[in-house]
């Protein structure tokens, strides 16, 4: 870090960096080489669809041994792509800081290195929405997306947003603000969400199938209504709706479900499972359906 500088031009210090909280060999490997090796292996086993340039992704956020194979299908679509900015929208699981929380740090850290936070975009977003800047967030659902992005994209600036409120109104307000500040920029929007939690295997597939259908139809308003009705579950439903709406404003006109599974597909317990979805939003161009 000796040759790196903060936004103020001084040498970078630990107080400038949001440390990795979940690189504990349970959520994901603590070793950079082992983490990279795991992600490269997962990506190699995932399907690539030649559908054009993704404007957005939906990715799950459990420990990599559970949801990593599904998440890899989303991130595989970034092969050969570059973005100046990546927005990651996650829920808040442990603390409620307000409707929208963002880090006060200048960098996120993972075992693969540092990711600079797009402070200029956060400032623009803060002029449109009530952002709460936090010094410690303990939020795994945002952090676990970052190593995949580092492997696939290399250098980019991160716009990290955690939703403490996931109402349709909160998702629509965030989407409108993001569409304004990202217009004309080279940007990707990622929604971090798992689906139903702790139901038997077949019940989970039925519940999650309703979300899969709304994503395939590219119907974020219908998805928001479905979640509000309780007929489906997603811990990051607000982030999914916000990302779909923002991408639509930025030019996307279709969503492709790339893979659905749940923890019962990779773990012995099928009595209490968690659902995982990988999808991508694209602009005009050829489309191929089907998610497995």
Give a brief outline of the structure.
With 292 residues, this protein is an alpha/beta fold. It has helices at 32-45, 64-75, 119-126, 140-143, 146-153, 168-182, 201-216, 220-229, 237-249, and strands at residues 17-18, 54-59, 85-91, 100-103, 107-110, 113-116, 131-134, 157-163, 187-192, 197-199, 254-262, 273-282. Strands 2, 3, 4, 7, 8, 9, 10, 11 and 12 form a nine-stranded mixed beta sheet that branches. It has a three-stranded mixed beta sheet with strand order 1-5-6.
Report on the architecture of this protein.
This protein is an alpha/beta fold and 292 residues long. Helix 1 packs across helix 2, helix 7 runs antiparallel to helix 8 and helix 8 runs antiparallel to helix 9. The protein is built from 9 helices and 12 strands. 49% of the residues are buried. The chain has one domain: LigB-like (Protocatechuate 4,5-dioxygenase, Chain B), CATH 3.40.830. The longest helix is centred in the last third of the chain and has 16 residues. Strands 2, 3, 4, 7, 8, 9, 10, 11 and 12 form a 9-stranded mixed beta sheet that branches.
